[in-house]
Amino acid sequence: MKLKEKNLSRKLRLQGYSINEICRKLSLAKSSVSIWVRDIKLTTTQKENLSSKGIKKEIIERRRTTRLIRENAKRQIIINEAKEDIDSLSKKDLFLIGIALYWAEGSKSQRNAVKFSNSDSRMIKLMMRFFKDICRVPEKKLKGYIHIHHHLDVKKSEDYWSSISKIPLSQFYKTYRKPNKGSQNKKDSLPFGTFDITICDTKLFLKIQGWINGICKMSEI
After folding, report:
1. H-helix or E-strand spanning residue 144
2. For the segment 23-35, what is each residue's pLDDT rounded down to a tens digit?
3. Of 7, 55, 57, 162, whose CB count within 10 A is highest?
4. What is the pTM of this model?
5. With pLDDT > 90 as the criterion, what percentage of the chain qualifies?
6. pLDDT at 19 over 80
7. Which of the listed residues 29, 60, 81 is the one where a domain comes to its end?
8. Which residues contact 167 (CB under 8 A, 6 or more apart)?
């Protein structure tokens, strides 16, 4: 038995500390402290003080929650107002945005294929428009490929990305399941994994590289 810790726990309890406060102060397990101090009866004043602390904590937490709600509401107003600045997306806009996104997130090493990877469904939707409307890629040439942690639901992910990209599952490569045991039983920020749009077309790859170079040339001072 941890005699020193037990004696300190009892001393603090006699002073009117709550069990949770003792646990935090001495870095002890609640189960141990509860047993050590269970025979100690608090005075009426001590009980009232603990009750008062609990009410104060509740008030502080309520105020914090209210403040966060108000701050988030203010942030959302700015986002919504800025959203109105974009009233349409022309073909030229889509052309330039698609090039810029590919420059940032697309593969530049696989010279025989165009590959764009991301976990943001909105970006995948936009790039699908770019490939279809700007690059004129036929539906049958669009392939899907998913990278996902081993413990996540593959079928759910495949259905999700197929609905987002509009690429049929028959045109998906076999999903890559990352053997990451350390990610099990943890909240995953990417429940559907990362999605790749793949197009086996050397000419399109070279054309996109040319567009990127064109933007680089125009941006030179």
Report:
1. strand 143-149
2. 988 889 988 999 9
3. 162
4. 0.67
5. 53
6. yes
7. 81
8. 128, 142, 143, 144, 161, 197
CB 142 within 8 A of CB 201: no
Distance separating alpha carbons of residues 159 and 161, to the nearest angstrom:
6
Residue found under tokens 């696989």:
110
* Domain's final residue, options 62, 81, 100: 81
pLDDT in tens, 71-85: 999 999 999 999 898
- Band of pLDDT at residue 187, cut at 50, 70 and 90: low
Which one, of 30, 32, 22, lies nearest residue 2 by Cα?
32
Tell me, yes or no, whether 171 lies in a domain: yes
Burial of 81 (0-12, 13-18, 19+ CB in 10 A): exposed
CA dist list (Å): 143 to 4, 188, 199? 66, 25, 6
Query: Could you give the CA distance from residue 103 to residue 211 in angstroms, rounded to a whole number?
Result: 9
Give 22's contacts (C-beta < 8 A, 6+ positions apart): 9, 12, 13, 28, 33, 37
